[in-house]
Amino acid sequence: MAPREETETEAATGETPVGAPAGASPPALGVGMVGYAFMGAAHSQGWRTAGRVFDLPARPVLAAVCGRDGKAVRAAADQHGWAAAETDWRDLIARDDVHIVDICTPGDSHAEIAVAALDAGKHVLCEKPLANSVAEAEAMTAAAERARARGQVAMVGFNYRRVPAMTYARRLIAEGRLGKLRHVRVTYLQDWLVDPDFPLTWRLQREHAGSGALGDLGAHIVDLAQYLAGEPLVGVSAMTETFVRSRPLPAGASAGLSAGGGGAAERGPVTVDDSALFTGRLASGALASFEATRMAAGRKNALRIELNGERGSLAFDLERLNELSFHDHTEPAASSGFRRILVTEPEHPYLEAWWPPGHALGYEHTFVHQARDLLHAIATGTEPEPSFADGLQVQRVLAAVEESAEKNAVYTPVLPELPAPQAL
Ligand SMILES: NC(=O)c1ccc[n+]([C@@H]2O[C@H](COP(=O)([O-])OP(=O)(O)OC[C@H]3O[C@@H](n4cnc5c(N)ncnc54)[C@H](O)[C@@H]3O)[C@@H](O)[C@H]2O)c1
Question: Taking every annotated instance into account, which residue ranges of this chain make up the domain GFO/IDH/MocA-like oxidoreductase (predicted)?
């Protein structure tokens, strides 16, 4: 790897520059993570494992984790392997041994933490959806652009791009194996809100989550559709619904997906959607359909996507994430059909570092791949994917979906980037 100029961050922290000449041991990059529950555990797994599996240009060090309760965050640090614990994210950002700030909190704090971390000279990984509003996502993207000029990178945690079968599907589509794209069909279904007495956790409150199934699950499938198609959505027509409009107030702090702490007699209003259903048009004219719900009884984390082009089709089911179905429509009709590709060969994305063919990967590996890719982006000084700009584009789609739903499904353009203000 070619050496590059030392960045301001590295100069400030005294770290050996990432991308040092071959033979030098990889330099350490300290990670500081905010939030330690569901995604915090998954990201910890990624940071702990990436350097033990992949040959990395930098060695991630789990420097410090941050929560709001001192005792609980100390316990989380011990459980997940973090050297230190903080109770204020500002103190985490200020630490000299933290070079990457990893944001695993609900959406209401993403913008404030990310902008502060970038302005303080840190690289940032931020969970999805990037923010709770387009305005916040714009501010974050502007901060990322300013930081980019100083050699910092910022990435969004759309981890499903890093399922090897999805990365490989993108490669096949980019090679033209589907030809001109006609359809993208995506559903992301869960069932943890079917119970009307599931407590009113942060995911059901607009001020904390921004939106409901839309921002939680819809953000993933919008990103995946745009990533695989290689083009943005330009307009949508949408319906959303909140089937259960009040829920029991949680008795105590409760993790987003667990029912723990519920059951109180007092109920509060649900201020987000339970389900979002929308169609869309991609820039090339291809049509797309999306369904995101937490009300699909029996469906636990069922993400399915199919793409149809003039030369073939691809289909994927997250419950069988080592497999990709591919139909080559240029083959003779009599012998053609969907074939199952087992995406575990060393030639497949990320697989060169894992197990022999057929020894399957799972959900957690996507977070290892995410850590790997961010460290490579830092080392090579390249824009990571998905960037904050990609996260902003998804946010604009979510906003267009909400606007369309408010207008009874009227077709609503996804606002393009605003032109730069004209000089007077
Ligand atoms: N990539 C994925 O597949 C995926 C899956 C689930 C959640 N997410 C996203 O990850 C983020 C977190 O979701 P989660 O499921 O981990 O939630 P969670 O409720 O399980 O955990 C949230 C954590 O943030 C902490 N926290 C909240 N506010 C804080 C603050 N101001 N300072 C410090 N800590 C704070 C909480 O104490 C908790 O540790 C959300 O943006 C969510 O949309 C992504």
Answer: 168-314
Residue 55 tokens read as 């040959």
The tokens of 311 are what? Answer: 């030369």
Q: Both 146 and 243 in a single domain? A: no
**Same domain assignment for residues 247 and 342:** yes
One DSSP character per residue, 249-287 reads PPSS---TT--TT---S-EEE--S-SEEEEEEEETTS-E
Mean pLDDT by 10 residues, the chain (424 residues): 34 41 77 98 98 97 98 98 98 98 98 98 98 98 98 98 98 98 98 98 98 98 98 98 97 57 76 98 98 98 98 98 98 98 98 98 98 97 96 98 98 75 42
Which CATH number is 81's domain given? 3.40.50.720
In short, whether 109's Cβ falls inside 6 Å of ligand 1 is yes
> CA–CA separation, 34 vs 298, rounded Å?
32
DSSP classification of residue 216: I
Q: What is the pTM of this model?
A: 0.92
Both 170 and 148 in one domain: the answer is no
Among residues 117, 121, 114, the alpha carbon closest in space to that of 152 is found at 121
CA 106 – CA 109 distance, rounded (Å): 6
Give CA separation, 320 vs 40, 164, 315, 361, 399, in Å: 24, 12, 11, 10, 31
Q: How remote is the CA of residue 40 from the centroid of ligand 1, in Å?
A: 7
Ligand 1 near 15 CB (within 6 A): no
Structural domain range at position 76: 8-159
